[in-house]
# Entry
Amino acid sequence: MRRTRALVALAAIFLAGLAVAAGAQETEGSREAATEPSESGGISWGLDLDLTSRYLWRGLALSRGAVAQGDLWFSAGGFTASLWGNWDPDPNEGSGRFNEWDAALAYERAAGPVILRVQYVRLSYPDQLGVPSTGEASFEAEFDLGGGFALGTHQIWDVEAYPGSHYGDLFLAKGLEAGKGELQAALSLGWGSRSFHEAYYEVDHRGFTVGCVTLAWEVPLGERWLLRPHAEAGLLLDRALREATGRRVVACAGVGLSWSF
# Structure
């Protein structure tokens, strides 16, 4: 019952925000206005809210059911500072509180068709006994192939709780206009070091972890709002990982609402 009431409250809050956003009049170029930095002082900031059926992370289902996630960010001069949180209404997963906080600082730079990004993120897990806080340093490169296609990679290293642990992926993304928004699709292949799989899957494995497909539709609502329905499915690529999790496929679907200034 407690879980049901929490989910109803989450949905009501989200729909109320959506109604406010939908009331804004859409103008030409609103998609760019919803995502580009503010020109006043070169500083932009925004808030992203997401309601999703399950919290998926590197092939793992980190929640039993629906969660709410939020991200507050500030950007200037290529730097972005952000605070992200995960709220799980399941009383067995942090007693219906925020059970994860991620504070991050990133720097991004474009060089021709290539976008490079480095980031450090501090991950904290309040109310999750036995889950240590940690820090990760990451590097991302994305290359514009033309025609709406992009090829890229993420390379992530743990530098605190599990030093030397590494996770990486290779992705191919495609974007195209669809109605009043943009449809985005991506395929990715992820792999991890032995220490990564020992820490998070509790198995002795080094190699491929998960293959994923993601779909999202970004729809501008007015000058500053963006609606983003999305879905993701992943296939665990090793028998030991499937046996450890009791799953072969992980999937989720949700809807996000973003506001930027």
